[in-house]
Amino acid sequence: MLRLSRVLNKHNANIRSLSILRTKTPNDTTVEVGQEIEGFVVKEVKPVADFQLTALRLEHQKSGADYLHIDRNDSNNVFSIAFRTTPKQSNGLPHILEHTTLCGSKKFPCRDPFFKMLNRSMANFMNAMTAPDYTFYPFCTENQSDYYNLMSVYLDAVFNPMLRESDFRQEGWRLEHKDVDDKNSPIEIKGVVYNEMKGVYSDNQQIYNEHFLNNILPSNTYGINSGGDPNVIPSLTHSDLVAFHHRYYHPSNSRFYSYGNFNLENHLKFLNDTFLKDCLADPSIKDETKVPNEKRWTTSKRAHIACREDPMVPKDKQSSLSIGTLWSDINNTQETFELAILSRLLLNGPNAKFYKTLIEPNIGTDFSAATGFTDQTRDTFFAVGLQGLKVSDFERVESIYEDTIKSAIKEGFDNRDIDNILHSVELSMRHQTSNFGLQLLYGTLPVWNHDGNILDSMCVSEKIDEFKKKLSNQPNYLQSLVDKYLLNNNHKLVMTMSPENNFEELRKENEDKLLKEKLALLSDVDKENIYVQGLNLRKQQDATQDVTCLPSLSLDDLKKTTDPVPLIRKNINNTPVFIFPQPTNQVTYFRSLINTSHLSHDLKTLIPLFCNVVTRMGTKSMDFRQFDQLVRKSTGGLQVSQSIIDSPKNLFDMKESVILNSHCLDKNVDEMFDLWKQIFTQVTFEDENRFKTLLQEEASSLANSISGSGHMYAMLCATAGINPIDAQRETYGGLQYISTMKKIAQTDDLLPILKKLEEIGTIILNKNTMKCSLTIVENNSMAVKGLEGFLNTIAGNWEQPNDYNKIDKLDNNAKCFHHVLPFSVNYCAKALPGVHYAHKHFAPLKVLCKYISSKYLLPTVREKNGAYGSGASLSMSGSIQMFSYRDPKPIETFEAFDGACNWVNNKKITIEELNEAKLAIFQGIDHPVAPMSKGNALFFNDMDHQIRQEHRNQIMNVKVEDLLKVANLYFSNTNFSKALIGPANNDIRSGTNWNVTNHEDL
């Protein structure tokens, strides 16, 4: 249900009955159907009151290009171009083409203009993405000059790319000597996408999802892997790539999207004059790429796949099973909307049908990866199943599936659960985010890509009304959907997955076999060419690029001051309260910070688990199902999280905290605070079976997170070796915590853990160390009264004049950690001590990290060594971090990390490069902030306007000599720590004392 969550997670008013034939946009431009504007003709105009926007559908008269403009009073403007790309093989062609188009174009011939624009723009989002059946290139920016700069670069990239063979070899795949300079070293398969997809195929969950899609929609483009199978990618040729681009990256196959408050006419004029006016339509392209409906099966099918063993999961519970059925055509937007609601009723929360029958008996550890409603493909489908299974439980799960469906048809659904889902839709429509335009694009593209009615798909209130009408006229309407799409649906797939002991060995054998086959076809001349091509590619990668062809903002384009945030400070029942008046669209946002530094160490290690379960265990007066129903009825959820907050003024000073977070419609504020009151006064930890269910979910989720976020775990592991605050973070959220959770999940007697969680609640669920914040529409006295009632009810009295505490410094011994996990690629990190936020060296270090990322690590670790990503950053805890992501060459990467200081000293840094690094910093500082988040820096991090303004001034004033100074002061430090997550590697240990952890032993 990805698209539903994106389409419904919108906001704003609910005004109805506006004309759809003629409208005045916020830009005061009257637009009519049939009107011609700069080579485009207006096809549809529709105000969408749910989101306070006007949607306009246009078509370029000459080329046939499709255009959707969303006119809305939002300064964060979005642009995207998409093409329907439907591959016929798993060679990764659309994915590699997406990468290669961004490596230089006719107007911007320098290498990698996309990455170089990251430092020449104020875009708060830039990317390119490949879906199974389309490729799109979006960006967001608030600066109008920046908007057209990026449009120019993006559109020249897709319509006029260089597509050099060397770029194809770098980004896609190539044969190259392990040591490029040594023709006697072994020849390997290299390439950014090749290594990226090896990383994807290291993730059992990704493997499972991909095969499920391939098997339930086998007859068209979904039957293959659009990202690329590493065993098939080396069959792709450069000429295939060029031919595919020439045919399908054509205006007739394009879908343009713009959003925000910039003038539409200017967009259309720019497009027409620069790219489209001389293009002729070719309707046959859309016919070629059109995805047909999957032919419905007459009988169900089965599939089984193998995966690697996961040392983070018990050996006897590593299998998965999912049962899926094909549902609606994506273009039937009303039915798709209703089926997404049905999916929520079946899956979401403790009152859902399948949650009760599959999760609560603790047969497996969690729902399987393929579980949910998928409405991204031409035919939508639903699947449900379990992971963490024993093979012997497969038949039991299938039996439960059938019984649950029959029970749903017989008993129907609780009207309170239906109302709660519709309430969540209303709340999410009002909930304002900073990236609404981008999320709307994500939700719209799948329907648009299959020529559906995209304007109709945005009208959520109309769909709710139609759904309610059906429920009123047909009380058993939902049961009829269950009968049609689940019980009596022959297009059903049962897929299972189990680990094989030699999975990784077989994968390596296949990789070696493929390489041998490639090498066997090479003549001596071919081998010499490989050596020469390797040298030439390295020469191109090392060459200084002339970037003067690229547009750029300057520091003069930036605002000089930090925007102040209105604040009202109060003491309510002696408790500090921060009130932030903001245009919240009738939504109240509540946050609270509770200091936990006074807890004992053994309790602190369980705080993350406490946070995960405290609002989901029920209370003394209500069980967890009843409580969950009330939470969904009145709020957007009650979230509790553990946090360690660094002092901006003192190194190794921190706040150990628990954060409460919730929001609701203004009319429900009393109910929201009553729910928090029940958590504080009545929470119970007595239901051992419920706790076991939540524990299994948490342990499973953590284990599954490593392969997708390995660089984050590696950075945390490395910084833990040199920073005592990060050492605490590692204990509470790193690999150490995952190992702790694995052990607890395998414990038979959970009562001692429950007792400790109860003790944590007794100590912190009061207002002794609490401070609160409200983000509300100005003069919303009801929210303030609701908070006052809550504070008057709960126990305790404020008694904490200083909520920071100092942590002792770690010893200075260098530390290196290797966590051995069965991945095909690696995640590397190196950490060095830095300074706190307000220190005079923080700003130049921050700029230096950006500079090193783009000018050194990107070309060295990504382009040359083939890692999917790499960078450097400076954390609020004062730790310098360098990292790589999905990296095939960890030894070379650590050498690059170690050589960063020498590189800076040998590199002549220009003023232009310095300013580019500053621009990249300001992208993060000046990114759009949603009303609900304004004030967070002050409330959580004690960063007032003066501190933020001083930081801004320091960034602006950084000089080239400052970068050289801090490089030699900090990057040459012999007190460092390194971390490597990946397969066993004997070579990495040479010359350094590595602490090796084999996670099969944990």
UniProtKB/TrEMBL annotation:
Recorded GO MF terms: metal ion binding; metalloendopeptidase activity
Domain of life, source organism: Eukaryota
Occurrences of domain Peptidase M16C associated (ranges): 497-744
Annotated Gene Ontology cellular component terms: mitochondrial matrix
Coiled-coil segments on the chain, per record: none
Co-factor(s): Zn(2+)
Compartment annotation: Mitochondrion
Main location: mitochondrion
Database matches in PANTHER family: PRESEQUENCE PROTEASE, PRESEQUENCE PROTEASE, MITOCHONDRIAL
Family membership noted in the UniProt record: Belongs to the peptidase M16 family. PreP subfamily.
Protein name per Swiss-Prot or TrEMBL: Presequence protease, mitochondrial
Lineage: Eukaryota, Metazoa, Ecdysozoa, Arthropoda, Hexapoda
